[in-house]
Amino acid sequence: MESFIIQDATQEDVQQFEAGMNAYNNTHVQFDQTPEFIMYNRTIKHDGKVAAGMVAEIYFWNVLTVSILWVDEAHRGKGYGAALLADAESEARKRGGTLAHLNTFDFQAREFYEKQGYAVFGVLEGYPEGRCRYYMSKKL
Q1: Please, which pLDDT band fits residue 36 given cuts at 50, 70 and 90?
Q2: Which of 21, 54, 56, 125 is buried most, with the most CB atoms less than 10 Å from its CB?
Q3: In 3-state terms, what secondary structure has residue 33?
Q4: How far is Cα of residue 43 from the mean position of the Cα atoms in its chain?
Q5: pTM of the predicted structure, to 2 decimals
Q6: If pLDDT is split at 50, 70 and 90, which confidence band does 140 have?
Q7: Adjacent-strand bridge partners of 52
Q8: Which residues pair with 69 in a beta bridge?
Q9: Any alpha helices (H) in the chain, and if so which ranges?
Q10: CB within 8 A of 74, min separation 6: which ones?
Q11: Contact call for residues 67 and 42 (beta carbons, < 8 A)
Q12: N- to C-terminal Cα distance for the chain?
């Protein structure tokens, strides 16, 4: 067996990994979006303060992935989360997107996402111990 050393990756190393993986993937399924990654981060402010926010990305095939959707407790129930999610879904649709996905823990917002039309396609149990994480998607 060849000897090797595992070490910390530099930002340049990571860029090379990403470029290599993207090039390989593109030989099997052509990317149809330029640029490949479009950040779609939004916020709602109330009296100058952040009341809600979303970190999302539209990538490769105009697929929407939502990383963070947060609404301050004082503003929950006002429709802010639904509005942010609908806004991102609309942008993905405008670009030809047909799919959105996200994940949420059992103590977060599964029911909220189900009301928005998302369905569970996977469950990771014991993450963290005694809890689970739901992976959800929606056809746009």
Answers
A1: confident
A2: 56
A3: coil
A4: 16
A5: 0.86
A6: very high
A7: 44, 71
A8: 54
A9: 11-28, 80-94, 110-115
A10: 51
A11: no
A12: 49
Two structure tokens written together for 57: 């990305």
Joined tokens for residue 11: 């930002």
Determine how many CB atoms are found less than 10 A away from the CB of residue 120.
14
∠ Cα 85 54 83 (to 5°): 30
Cβ contact 138:119 at 8 Å: yes
Instruction: Please state, in angstroms and rounded to a whole number, the distance separating the CA atoms of residues 133 and 104.
Output: 6
Rounded CA separation 138/116 (Å): 9
- What CA–CA distance (Å, rounded) separates 23 from 5? 26
Alpha-carbon distances of 136 from 2, 19, 58, rounded to whole Å: 41, 27, 16
What's the fold here for domain 31-139? Aminopeptidase (3.40.630)
Sign of CA dihedral 51, 135, 113, 125: negative
Residue 32's pLDDT is what? Answer: 79
- Nearest Cα to 55, choosing from 93, 102, 14? 102
Provide the token pair at 75.
Answer: 């503003």
Q: Which two tokens stand for residue 63?
A: 């697929």
Side chain identity, residue 57 = E
Residue 84 parent element (H or E): helix 80-94
